[in-house]
Specification:
The chain is of the alpha+beta class. It has two domains: about 90 residues, Impact, N-terminal domain (Ribosomal Protein S5, domain 2, 2-Layer Sandwich), CATH 3.30.230.30; about 70 residues, Alpha-Beta Plaits, CATH 3.30.70.260. About 35% of the residues lie in helices and about 30% in strands. It is built from five helices and seven strands; from the N terminus they run αββαβαβαββαβ. The strands form two sheets. It has a four-stranded antiparallel β-sheet. Strands 2-1-3 form a three-stranded antiparallel β-sheet, sandwiched between helices. The protein is elongated and about 65 Å long.
Length: about 180
C-alpha cells in the first residue's frame, strides 16, 4: 500500500484490524522517506522476528520506500513453526509486491501549514494556483493543511505565502 508517513500507516492498520477483527495476527512493516531511514517491523504476537522482519526484508529487497505491507493471518489449526512462519510472511510480502503496482513518485517538499480561518480563502487560492497537492486539511477556527510540492516549485510558493501574518509553516521533510 502506498503510504508516506506513520500517521497514515496507523490509519490503514486500524482499518485492517477492524475489517479482520477475528484474525489472530496483523503483522506489518513499513519504510518511509527519501533516505529510507524511517522503518518499522511488527510481529503482532508471532515469535520474535518471524513476521515483521521478513516483510521488511522484502521491502528492502525491492528497494521500496513510502510503503506499508500488512499480512493478516487467521489461525487454521496447523502450527507452522518459526521457519514456516518466516517463509509464509516473506512469501506473502513478495507476492503482494509482485502483484501490486509500483508507483514512481517525484521527490517533493512536504509542509504543514497552520493559519487562522479568516485567511483560509486567500491561502487556499495561493495553494490551488501552485502545483502543490493537499494531503490533509482541517478548517476550523484554527486551520491546518498538509501539502506536498515539487522541490523546484517550493521557493515561489513560500514567497507568496510570506504575506499572511497568521500563517505558520512547518517543514515535514523532503521525500
Amino acid at each position: 500500500m502506498y503510504c508516506e508517513d506513520e500517521e497514515v500507516a496507523k490509519e490503514y492498520l486500524a482499518q485492517w484490524r477492524n475489517e479482520h477483527h477475528q484474525a489472530r495476527h496483523l503483522c506489518y512493516a513499513y519504510r518511509f522517506g527519501i533516505k529510507k531511514d524511517v522503518y518499522r517491523a511488527n510481529d503482532d504476537g508471532e515469535p520474535s522476528n518471524s513476521a515483521g522482519a521478513p516483510i521488511l526484508g522484502q521491502i528492502q529487497a525491492y528497494d521500496l520506500t513510502n510503503v506499508l505491507i500488512g499480512v493478516v493471518r487467521y489461525y487454521g489449526g496447523v502450527k507452522l513453526g518459526v521457519g514456516g512462519l518466516i517463509n509464509a510472511y516473506r512469501t506473502a510480502a513478495k507476492e503482494a509486491i509482485e502483484n501490486g503496482r509500483i508507483i514512481t513518485e517525484v521527490v517533493k517538499d512536504r509542509f504543514e501549514l497552520f493559519f487562522d480561518y479568516q485567511d483560509m480563502p486567500l491561502i487556499m487560492d495561493v495553494i490551488k494556483s501552485s502545483e502543490a497537492s493537499i494531503n490533509k486539511q482541517v478548517f476550523e477556527n484554527d486551520c491546518y493543511l498538509k501539502i506536498a510540492i515539487k522541490i523546484e516549485d517550493t521557493a515561489p510558493l513560500l514567497d507568496k505565502l510570506k504575506e499572511f501574518n497568521s500563517l505558520k509553516i512547518k517543514s515535514i521533510g523532503t521525500f
